[in-house]
Amino acid sequence: MSAPETLTTAPTELVARVPLWERIRIRAGKVLAYSLIVIVSLPIIVMYVWLFMQSISTQVLLGFIPKKLSLNNWRFLWSEVTIGVRTYTSIWPVVLNTFVFAMGVTFVVVLVSALSGFALSRFQFRGRTQLTQMTILLHAFPGVTLLIAIYYILFVLWKVPIIGPIIGLNSIWGVVFVKSALEIPMAAWIVKGFFDDIPWDIEWAAYVDGCSRLQAWRRVILPVIQPGIASVAIFAFLAGWSEFLYLFTFIFEQKNFTLSLYVKQLIGDFKFVDYGLLSAAALFYMIPPLLFFLFTQKSLLRVSFGGVKG
């Protein structure tokens, strides 16, 4: 007895053909978008290529073609640099100062913004909404307009016997607190948005288990908003690493120089500039932020700022 035949009917596939004009419009849009990206990115790429070629050669043709390769421009990594009558200090103490400054700004900004963002999100007090709105206004002031006032404050602190050398003029930590104070308003606003997205049930459950407000903030709520804390930390580190204006104004001695001041020192008065050495130092200055971004970009991609509320 033969097995019954199985009748299979293939489903009819309806192929919707896109009109020719629509395909042309889509492709033209893609070409235009990629063209704009190339046009905007090309000057930046050209500048980086120029820096790299200048740093690995003693002479270049047309600005980009190395005529003679050499690592002499990178000599600041293993020795002091002498240009004319000036001798520039070893770069490694400068690198240490830069890391101390950037990490100090990161620590202060993350700590204060996490506490203030929690207070703005969870506490009810008179003027809370107005204070929250003022945080953006405080961040909008140009830093250069505050130089005289900040200089006066640091000068007064500098005369205090014990704390003066630590947080006064010509002190890295003094500038750390200045830079952190300018970064905290925006960071607190961002962190407040993450606290707003946390349901009250999670916080009340911590209180029922016997936690105080500080314990609930530290043990329960902070782990939930790790992406927000990571984003604030990343931006604070990059702001501290790239800071120049306040360091240039309030730091006087070479022992407290950071990499931004070291590069400025290599430029000098533009009369006798070693562009190869300057290019190598500029590339070295950019390496840590690039590495920092490569290792933290996944945290940034997981961040959503949609929960920020007034």
Describe the model:
With 310 residues, this protein is mostly helical. The chain has two domains: 20-70, no CATH class; 81-301, Orthogonal Bundle (MetI-like fold), CATH 1.10.3720. It contains twelve helices and four strands. It has helices spanning 20-55, 91-122, 128-139, 147-158, 164-167, 172-196, 200-208, 213-224, 226-241, 245-250, 259-267, 275-301, and strands at residues 57-61, 65-69, 81-83, 86-88. The strands form two sheets. A two-stranded antiparallel sheet has the order 1-2. Strands 3-4 form a two-stranded antiparallel sheet. Helix 2 (91-122) packs antiparallel against helix 9 (226-241) and helix 9 (226-241) runs antiparallel to helix 12 (275-301).
Which labels suit this protein?
310 residues, mainly alpha, MetI-like fold, two-stranded antiparallel sheet, two-stranded antiparallel ribbon, 4 strands, disordered C terminus
- Give the number of helices: 12
> What is the level-2 CATH architecture name of the largest domain?
Orthogonal Bundle
Structural class: mainly alpha
**Strand content of the residues, in percent?**
5-15%
Order of secondary-structure elements? HEEEEHHHHHHHHHHH
* Overall body shape: flat
- Low-confidence segments: 1-15, 306-310
Order of adjacent strands in the largest pleated sheet: 1-2
Q: Biggest β-sheet, characterized?
A: 2 strands, antiparallel
CATH homologous superfamily name of the largest domain? MetI-like
Query: How far apart are the termini?
Result: 79 Å
Q: What is the mean pLDDT?
A: 81
Helix content: 55-70%
CATH topology of the largest domain: MetI-like fold
How many strands in all? 4
Rg, please?
28 Å
Kindly provide the name of the CATH class of the largest domain: Mainly Alpha
